[in-house]
Known about the structure:
Layout: H1 8-14, H2 26-32, H3 37-63, H4 67-81, H5 83-94, H6 101-114, H7 119-131, H8 152-159, H9 163-179, H10 185-190, H11 196-223, H12 227-231
Helix pairs in contact: 3-4, 5-6, 9-11
Amino acid sequence: MAEAFEPLAQVRKEFKVNWYRSPIENSRLKQLTKRTDIRGFVQTIGYLLLVAATASVAFYFFTNRMWLAFAVALLVHGTIYCFNPGLITHEFSHGTVFKTRWLNAFFLRLFSLLGLVNFHHYKRSHTYHHIYTLHLRGDREVVLPGNPSLNPAKLFWLFTFNVPLFWLILKNTVKLAVLGKFDREWSEAIFPDDDPRGQNDARKWAWAILLFHAAVLVVAAVFNLWALPVLI
């Protein structure tokens, strides 16, 4: 049976975290958090070029049926590529990469498409995560303590391709797009019934994710480029 939580609206009214504020001057904090478009471009385009380079090498080995080399290249490519769904979309959702807001918005959408991330859901969830960080009453994005495991299957998914997690994300994306239903209590809590616009935005983006990756599969089928969906 799923654990029942008090309504998030009630939590927001009653629960205030007594945070400790680190002693730092405002001028110093602004200096440390200053955003620049130049640095944003260097980091973002640099990462995309690195991904394109590893993908190209892996694609070459795939098309030439050099399977052992392809496996090694795919591991390298995946190790770099897997930074996207978590770390990269996290920074873009905070708007901390570029000084220019529309650049953050554009690349947030690009990386969210590639990484199967519903950024509308993530930004809403992450807001509450930062308000109530690790306090279960208000933050159910990061729930601790975790359950470490040396289960061989889980270790295999960790170091290769996490099929169960991929299937869960795909299933929940389809459920949201087709039925307009969220996957768990927390998602329903951060998108209450009196916020139809937020729900609609999340649903539209779920459709965008599905259509984008369906287009990738169509291109792969038409041009016989089956390495493409594997690399993406």
